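Database export, one record per block. Field names are fixed; values are copied verbatim from the stored entry.
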Amino acid sequence: MLKPTLRHFARAAFDISAHGDNDTLPFDIDVRFCGDRAQDLATIALGFYEELRDGPIKENHERIAGLHVSSERLIAPSGPAGFRVVTKIHPFWNIYLNGLAVSVAEVLEPQRKATVHSYRFLDGDGPQLFDSNRSWRAFKEATLEGLDVAGPDAVIVQTDVSSFYEHVSHHYIENFINDLGGDSKQVSRQVNALLGKLSAGRSFGLPVGGQGARVLAELFLNQVDTAITAAGVTWHRYVDDYVLIAGNTADAYRALGVLAQSLMDYGLSLNKSKTVFLSSKHYRDYVNSQLGAGDDEANKLRTIDLKFDPYSDNPSHDYESLKETVETLQVRNLLNRELEKALPDTFLVAQIGRTMRLHEPHVALEIASTLLNGTNLHAFRSSFSTIMRGIAHLRGDSRFESIYADIDSLLDAVPVHSAHLLNVDASLLHYMRCLRFCSTPERAVYVRKLWDSTQLDVVRRACIDCWRNWGDRPGFNLLRNRWAQLSADCQRLFWLATYKFDDEGDAARRQFRRATPQAWALGVEVPLDREKDREKLKRHPRGAEPLLATVYEEWAKEVKDAN
């Protein structure tokens, strides 16, 4: 039965710490805050949940609908010419939504079909929510195994759901959660209210990029999976990508019709431009091409697992082994080959960006120079975020100190030759994450102009993060004199920045300390009564659930030098 607990909210917080709050955006300092203060944040979340659970059912929606749930909708690249909307959510509300979703996933997982390969939930208390072995690659390999069963005359339909995340109905999500028993009615109304807040008041759409949305997407499509299974269709699915396997063309067409009807029942439709019929041989050749068969160099690079674990039994050996593998590859030749294509292989370029830190400094600089060249960067625009992540890894690693100055020069040239790429919100944030390591005259001007021109709070926070890491006094004074005009999220980051400015920073904290409890209040913190709430007090013996301001200020004092 569905029953959110402290464990679910804490696990959500630890997952954000380990994997970020949004997979399309760079990690920011709030990601660390979520991990370092996971138990405190989970305690606030559980207190609010229990308050709503124990009150009238209707208040589960109305209370959240009346609160300010801070979030921003941003544009991120999707392919070489497409864009999608992603959502940056306040860290507490991200934990709250994800915590509710973790409790849903726990109940949902036993009901899911074996041929669903995306986001298979791992039970337990660890930060890893989903089975990393159930990947897109494993999905494709499983479909090839399905061909062996279907026989040589099999016909395969490859298709996906049109604009799936944008069209998911909150009403259906609420109904599907209601079927899970336990506290389902309370949880469903809260999720409905949160989704409405994150969708600008609309009654459809999931916030792209976070774990909560992934769980809710799987909950939704589980209904479709059940329907097509009952109709006798043989299928595999990864998120909204379906592969249907049939014995002949007529059966394949019937299976596609069943899927289309099942989706239509929930207000969705198939993507006509991505729906294709393939023979068994053609599908096998196509998938082998996707997985890199026949190209040893590219295939090795595609299959490298970069989830290096420094806490493994033999991390040094693991790292050196991975490093040796990468060094044997002709990465520069592969990169030049991709440049000759009209549409470079996005995943291959992304892998090249990810593996830069596994090369010697001079080789890493050559690769970075190729990637950040103005003409090339436009060609590789689909991989912009991964390239910038790779550059940030180099710039933050002391082993590459000898090439810091060269990397900084390459970065400072990006707004000159590729300003159009920085007009995309997510790409700009990844670029800003690379600038924070040191100040240059060009960056000082760029960041100040950006601060004055942007309407996005998340971009302003990126500016503050640069000034904080640079120890930029003009930036500090600009913010101090405009404290009242800053959003609560910007105020929190400025508070952390004050620790970089000695006595001036101390004075700023004294000046604003009385304002923070009210300015940063979530509207959910519930004081506890020692007589009535003995069980809750056992979890938090200080006598009350912590205020977000108190938790953040204590944390900022401890990690004042954090990057």
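Remark 1: Confidence is low (pLDDT under 50) at residues 308-313.
Remark 2: The beta strands are 71-78, 82-89, 155-160, 234-238, 241-246, 276-279.
End of record.
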